[in-house]
Amino acid sequence: MSTFYAVRRLCLVLGLHYSGYYQWLKRPQSLRARQDERQTGLIKQLWLESGTVYGYRKIWLDMKDLGERAGRNRIARLMRLAELASQTGYPGLASVLFQG
Q1: Do 37 and 70 contact (CB within 8 A), yes or no?
Q2: Residuewise pLDDT in 10s, the chain (100 residues)
Q3: CA distances from residue 39 to 11, 23, 45, 60, 97 in whole angstroms, order as listed
Q4: Among 1, 30, 40, 50, fewest CB within 10 Å belongs to which?
């Protein structure tokens, strides 16, 4: 169940003036947020082109080949936030243990 509260009431509880909240809403998106948004789109495109198989390491290599500047940790974070995951294992194949 979701509960909604009025902005003025929340600001009162937090000891803030509600006009500050509305000023914060009008701020332009930061450079980092814009870069993250653009790179998330590129990551998603590369991930789909791989057949949803690639993880952050191979996506990082592909982005490096394209000349995109981003670290592995940033790509891993963006993939996690976008809920993009690499394929792990193959369905239908059981692991075989050596019984000696």
Answers
A1: no
A2: 557 888 899 999 999 998 998 999 999 999 999 999 999 999 999 999 999 999 999 999 999 999 999 999 999 999 999 999 988 877 666 666 666 6
A3: 34, 27, 10, 11, 42
A4: 1
> How many Å apart are CA 54 and CA 44, to the nearest integer?
10
Torsion 40-41-43-44 (CA) sign: positive
Q: How far apart (Å, rounded) are the C-alpha atoms in residues 43 and 14? A: 38
**pTM of structure:** 0.70
Residue 13, amino acid = V
Separation between Cα atoms, residue 25 and residue 71, nearest integer Å: 29
